[in-house]
């Protein structure tokens, strides 16, 4: 079955450090990929999306992600973590249908 | 901005009750979804609808039903609530037939069944 795998249910970084959240997908065709963020007791907000126009995608709040077909990955990065980045992050994919398939999520903790 | 509104942020219901979760979107989207979110499991699709009165089962439809009588409204129904349905429920909507567009989410309803 086509799926999305997020490595690490929890990631902890110091404020100012690099953020790297990992996402791998399985698909026989190029997928449409998304990163969403969820702050406590909130719904999901789109961070960025890959739509095949460019392999490096820039999103809101300084986040970006790079699509690597050879590695079937779409990892999320941010050069310098801020306390306000503490949240849960979800990678998702949509293929030829209109359904979104989500990974299990990664909770980002930012230490002062 | 697209707005997806869920009628309740928090609900507490008793085992065996019939529970209705309501969702309304204001962007004339054809597609609407109900997801369930549990720690460590991410979001799992319960049902989705691609048009009025049209619905399809998602990955975990057991114990749930849905209703879409109007384009803007998508209801999730728990026919007889059970404690294992205690969870966060998220509604979403998206435009049709364009897989590169994102889904827009409501704020979620945290349901507790006692």
Global Rg of chain B: 13 Å
Beta-strand fraction estimate of chain A: over 45%
What is the average per-residue confidence, as pLDDT of chain A, rounded to a whole number?
90
The radius of gyration computed from the alpha-carbon positions of chain A, rounded to a whole number of angstroms, is: 13 Å
Distance between the termini of chain B: 37 Å
Helical content of chain A (DSSP H or I, runs of 4+):
under 10%
Largest sheet of chain A, in brief, is: 6 strands, mixed
Structural shape of chain A: globular
Structural class of chain B: mainly beta
Following the backbone from N to C, one meets helices and strands of chain A in this order, namely EEEEEEEEEEE
Q: What sort of overall outline of chain B do the alpha carbons produce when their principal axes are compared?
A: globular
The quaternary structure here is heterodimer
In short:
By secondary structure, chain A is an all-beta fold. Chain A has strands at residues 3-7, 10-14, 19-26, 32-38, 44-50, 56-58, 64-68, 73-78, 87-94, 101-102, 106-111. In chain A, strands 2, 4, 5, 9, 10 and 11 form a six-stranded mixed sheet that branches. In chain A, strands 1-3-8-7-6 form a five-stranded antiparallel sheet, with no helix packed on it.
Give a topology summary.
The complex is a heterodimer of chains A (112) and B (114).
Chain A: E1 3-7, E2 10-14, E3 19-26, E4 32-38, E5 44-50, E6 56-58, E7 64-68, E8 73-78, E9 87-94, E10 101-102, E11 106-111
Parallel strand pairs in A: 2-11
Antiparallel strand pairs in A: 1-3, 3-8, 4-5, 4-9, 6-7, 7-8, 9-10, 9-11
Chain B: E1 4-6, E2 10-13, E3 19-25, E4 31-38, E5 42-51, E6 54-57, E7 64-70, E8 73-78, E9 87-94, E10 104-105, E11 109-113
């Amino acid at each position: 079955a086509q799926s999305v795998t997020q490595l690490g249910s929890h990631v902890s970084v110091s404020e100012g450090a690099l953020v790297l959240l990992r996402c791998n997908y399985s698909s026989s065709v190029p997928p449409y990929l998304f990163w969403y963020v969820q702050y406590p007791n909130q719904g999901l907000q789109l961070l960025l999306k890959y739509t095949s126009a460019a392999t490096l995608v820039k999103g809101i709040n300084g986040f970006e992600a790079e699509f690597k077909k050879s590695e079937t990955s779409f990892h999320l990065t941010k050069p310098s973590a801020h306390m306000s980045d503490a949240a849960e992050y979800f990678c998702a994919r949509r293929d030829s249908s209109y359904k979104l398939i989500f990974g299990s999520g990664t909770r980002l903790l930012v230490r002062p | 901005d697209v707005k997806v509104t869920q009628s309740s942020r928090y609900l507490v219901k008793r085992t065996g009750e019939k529970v209705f979760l309501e969702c309304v979107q204001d962007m004339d989207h054809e597609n609407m979804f109900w997801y369930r979110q549990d720690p460590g499991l991410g979001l799992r699709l319960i049902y989705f609808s691609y048009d009025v009165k049209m619905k399809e089962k998602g990955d975990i439809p057991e114990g749930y039903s849905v209703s879409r009588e109007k384009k803007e409204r998508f209801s999730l129904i728990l026919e007889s609530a059970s404690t294992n349905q205690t969870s966060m429920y998220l509604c979403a909507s998206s435009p049709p037939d364009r897989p590169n567009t994102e889904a827009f989410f409501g704020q979620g309803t945290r349901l507790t069944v006692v």
